Each structure stands twice: as structure tokens, then as C-alpha cells.
Amino acid sequence: MQILMILVFLGAFIGLIVNTGRKLFLWFRPLLSGTSPLAFGVIYGIIMTSVIVLFVLSRLPDSRIPREVFLADHYALGVAVYLVIFVNFTDFVLFVLRLSRMLTSPLPKGAAFSAGTAALVLSVVLSVYGGIHASGIQTKNYEVVLKEDGKADSMKIALISDIHLGYVVGETHLEKIVAAVNAAEPDLVCIAGDIFDGDITALENPSGLQKLFREINAPYGVYACLGNHDAGAGYEGMLEFLEKAHVRLLQDEEVVIDGRLILAGRKDSGPIGNQGSDRAELDDTAKKENLPRIVLDHKPENIGEYDRSTDLILCGHTHRGQFFPVNLINEGTMDVNYGYYRKNAKSPQAVVTSGAGTWGPPFRIGTDSEVAMIQVTL
């Protein structure tokens, strides 16, 4: 059944791509005089196939293709995605208008050209805006009360996730993230996974990136858990990188922070490749110590695994959908997509960040690249 669904999805995806090329040729035929449909189709097919193939190759470690090619391809992928979306949406709207006889059939040349131009311009404009907006770092503030009885205590925690260091996200963007964190003056910094984009060999200047991590100012240090992309053939290299970056990685283990709280970090529940060992259960240290426990768990879908021995769960992974219209799909289909969440009064509280980086097309439309600042009352 699962294979059948994959084949159906793949067929629909290819069909939309093919229809996009067909409509572009028909709508812009006045500008393509002398170009045969076959020639246009071959050129269009080569371009679209190259974009997809290069993206797949960028997922493989130790690629010899210049990193500049992969960087350009990620932007091209975003433009291609929007082109497929808007051309097919425009085609559907024109079909409805013809069906309701608000437009004649066949479509007038002027209307066809205008429709194609609108779809093309919208794809480019949104891509440019998305790329620019993704490069900025916003700060989102939360206040979370963990214990309402006893002597009041507080701690400011910076939560970041989904940096996805690799061909697209590098020193320039990480420098902005570190600046945003330091500007908020946190007591503790937590990274909720996907520090890497699955390939440690994609880092252009590892020592420079490590230096930036070491510049984070937090009295109680920087801690992290693993995300689904922090895995694979370069897993051991990732561990070495984090050690040199002074980022303490918690792999299904807990530490006590200043005698005030317990911080736990989990391995990812579905890593893309090797993470050394399988995900293990946490012990009951929090109950023994009678301290509030905060857990770093990359995927918010795991929130239901925790009971009252956990007070707060910090997650990422969703990117909040990252760009339109995926952000709307996430909102409509996911129980926990973004922000503060608590199922009921007996459940742990949770904060899900949209992440500080990007995956795939380096766009942010309808979402932000962010650092979440959480004022925790202990």
C-alpha cells in the first residue's frame, strides 16, 4: 500500500512538472516563434531534471561538484517549485473561468500571455523575497512557569534548532544567529537538533564555524540534542565538531544545571542514517532529585511519550512549514507545529521553534528564521 501511494504521488508530481512546461510553451508561444514544441520540451526537461538531480547529489557525502553549484541549485529548486505551483494553479483558474463561460475557449492570446507572465513574475518575486527574509534572524519571546509553589527562581533559555549547516547555511548566517543569541543575554543555550544538513563534508570552514559557536555567551553553557539530519556517514565527524565547538551533546542522557534544573537530550526518533546507537529511554533522575526537568527532543511528534516527570519539552524540526503554502499545510495537518503547546494540565509544556536555518529551498515565506527566548520560572 505504501509503495502504491509513493507511485501515485510520484506520478502526480511528474504530471504537474510536465503540465507546467506544456502551459509555459502555449502561453508564451508568441515569444517562441520558430521553436518547436519538441525542442522546448527537451530544454525544459533538461533544466528541471538537472535541478532535481543536483539537489539529490547534494545529499551525498564527499561530492566533487563545486559547492557554488549546489548553492545555486537550492535557489533554483525554490523557483522551480513555485513555478510548478503557480502555473498549475493559474491553469486551474483559467479552466474554471472557461467552464463558467467567463472566458472564451480557446483562450485569447493576450489572456494566455498575461496569465503566464503573472505566474512567472509571482514565482520570481516570492523567491527573491523568501531568500532575503530567510537570511534575517528574528527573536521570539516566551514565558513558561514550571513550578508555581515554593521559592520563585528563574532562568532565561535560548532555544535554537534546524541550523542545517552545509552548502547553503554557513558562517555568515551562523554569525547572525550567535549575535541574536548574545544580544538576548541568556543563562543557558539549547540546540534542538539538525545542527548539520546531513553531510559534515559540506562545511566550507569547520574551524570558523566552531569559533562562532564558542563565542556564544551563556553562564551555564551550550547544550544540544541530535536531529534527524545529524546522522549518517559523517556522524563521528559531527561529534568531533561539536566537541571542538564547546557544544555539549546530550544523547539520551541528563545533566543537572547549577543544582536548579535537569536538562535532558534525546537521540532522534527517526534519523536519516547512523547515530551510533538506537534511541534509549531516560531514567528517573528528575524524580529522585525533585528538580524540574527540561528535555530537548528534536521532533514535536514525540511529546506524547513524556509524563509528569518532565516539565518542559523543547523541539524544532517542523520549520513551521518554512515557506508558503507548506506553512498552511503544516498548520492544518499537524497537532503541534509551532509555538507554545500543552495538551492538558497534567501534561508537560512544550515550545516548538521554527528553526534558525532552512532546508531545501533557502526561503522563508510566512515564517521566520528565529531564536526563541524562554523566560522559565522554576
Q: Which tags fit this structure?
A:
alpha/beta, six-stranded mixed beta sheet, 12 strands, 16% strand, elongated
Compute the number of helices. 9
* Order of the strands making up the biggest sheet: 1-12-2-3-4-5
What is the mean predicted local confidence, pLDDT? 92
Instruction: Report strand %.
Output: 15-25%
Q: State the order of secondary-structure elements, H for helix, E for strand.
A: HHHHEEHEHEHEEEHEEHEEE
Structural class by sheet pairing and helices: alpha/beta
Uncertain stretches of 5 or more adjacent residues? none
Give the biggest beta sheet: 6 strands, mixed
Rg over alpha carbons: 24 Å
Number of E-state strands: 12
Helix share bin: 40-55%
Distance between the termini: 48 Å
Structure description:
With 378 residues, the protein is α/β, with parallel strands linked by helices. It contains 9 helices and 12 strands. The protein has a 6-stranded mixed β-sheet with strand order 1-12-2-3-4-5, with helices on one face. β7 (261-265), α8 (285-289) and β8 (293-296) form a beta-alpha-beta unit. α2 (37-57) packs across α3 (67-99) and α5 (171-184) packs parallel to α6. The chain is elongated, with a radius of gyration of 24 Å.
Secondary structure layout plus pairing:
Blueprint: H1 2-27, H2 37-57, H3 67-99, H4 109-134, E1 138-145, E2 154-160, H5 171-184, E3 188-192, H6 206-214, E4 222-225, H7 235-244, E5 248-249, E6 253-257, E7 261-265, H8 285-289, E8 293-296, E9 312-315, H9 326-333, E10 339-341, E11 349-352, E12 370-377
